[in-house]
Design a protein that fits this description.
single chain; about 325 residues; alpha/beta; Rossmann fold
Length: about 325
Amino acid sequence: MRKTLRLIAITLAMIALNGCLAGKYMCDFALLPEEHGNDIEGDRAKAESRYPGILSWYDSLRDKGVFRDTTLIGENGYRLHGVFASASDPEKANGTAIVVHGYTDNHICFLNLVRMYRDDLNYNVMVPDLHYHGYSEGRAVQMGWFDRLDVKRFAEMAHDIWGVSFMVVHGVSMGGATTMMLSGEEDLPGYIRAFVDDCGYSSVWDQFAHNLKDMFHLPPFPVLTSANIVCRKRYGWDFKEASSVRQLAKCELPVLFIHGDKDDFVPTAHVYKNYEAKAKGYKDIWLAPGSGHAMAYKDHPQEYTQRVSAFLEKAKNL
């Protein structure tokens, strides 16, 4: 009996040790990726390949001084970069849009949405590089959690620039999760009046559990549990705390949920959890037919633009 108990204890200790080592590896793998939006030229090439002509549009406006760079100090004390531009017809601007990029992306990666807001919808635009992405400083990817507070600071800066009373925050993938996490904050300024989530996850825990199963064929315990402990000790936040669902439960402002019905990176099931979690205030949902992850606009640019435009008009009149 003693030998059996000793063997069980040794086995459990080995599992725990291996789980800790695997958890540290996963935390590094997920939050300290080698490429984290810092390959600007590579991302420029990808943007151009998806949307031919987008770079000539952007570079021309930069050369004319329409797009300008800015920086601010983020929630954790790091200097964060962003770009901004006034609406195509500034005197008749319909509002301001904060466009939030995804995991390992930067301000270049969703110029299609920036152009949609500025040229098609006549909105001023502010586009941050999130913590540890693009030209911004930072310790590690924050998966939207502290990013939500950084985006709030960029929204305050945008309001200082333009002073427009209607602002929408629109994010894609991790940016979508950032947007939803921001939506539940209790002290939002009155000019932030709507949110658009495009393929954001329901929580960091849910997303990492899916990635762990999909990429490594492993269950959440013990690796994800260990990685969560590492993240909490290193960076001060928790995979379960970083929850779109919990934040949406507190949100009373309008939210449009967009998700590709063929998304297998952030599974489409996440959007149903997010949609159901928002029990207060106006909400709408669109499943982009046949679209994979972050491809709804690429596949359906006209319908995407029309649905966002209709949602914003509805939100303005609430």
